[in-house]
Amino acid sequence: MILNYGSVKYEASYGTAGQLPLSELPEIAFSGRSNVGKSSLINKFFGRKNLAKVSSVPGKTTTVNFFRVENIRFADLPGYGYAKRSDAEKKRWAELMESYFRTDRNIKLVVQLLDMRHPPSQDDITMINFIKAAAYPFIIVFTKCDKLNKTQRQQRRAEIAQELSFAGEFTAVEFSALTGEGCENVRKAVEEYL
After folding, report:
1. Strands 9-14 vs 64-69: parallel, antiparallel or unpaired
2. Measuring CA to CA, which of 20, 140, 171, 176 is 20 to 30 A from 162?
3. What is the pLDDT of residue 60?
């Protein structure tokens, strides 16, 4: 299925579990820790500069933001792992995520983002294990790959194979919001799962 990404429209944002609408369309979810580059990936993916709000401050996305292309819904999930949130905010986030993934949604693919420069955090590992346990198809996009030179990238690939051995087989895409590297591969993976 080839999508017209330029026709993307922002639909709505929801901040609490009770607000989430029922899922009647196929969905692609973007997941990752705070400041991993989710908004930058989404903007590059759709060819728009300001579709998703980009910030240098972690924890900017605190709602589930829905975008739509034709009959496909894309969900920008709030980043996890931001330590400076209050307990009430962490609880709201947990309930929102639980509700998003546990209500009978037609999730075709989870695009899980990891910063290529660093080993996965405990939160990343928990999220990947959750996605696997829930049997959602997923790919892993390694962001900020342009910040590594060729040798460093080779080294990280070898380390990643060890660090993510628990995840089984998955499609890996190295991505740069700066150069657009990997964007077409993310689109191809999304279209395959649709």
Report:
1. antiparallel
2. 176
3. 52
Strand order in the sheet with 72-76: 9-14, 64-69, 72-76, 27-32, 107-115, 138-143, 171-174
Phi and psi dihedrals of 171, rounded to 5?
Answer: -80, 130
Task: Check if the beta carbon of residue 16 is closer than 8 Å to that of residue 92.
Answer: yes
182-186 contacts, C-beta under 8 A, 24 or more apart: 182/141, 182/145, 183/44, 183/45, 186/41, 186/45, 186/111, 186/139, 186/141
Contact (Cβ atoms closer than 8 angstroms) between residue 175 and residue 153: no
For domain 5-193, is the CATH number 3.50.50.60?
no
Can you give the pLDDT at residue 42? 94
Q: Is the pTM of this model over 0.90?
A: yes
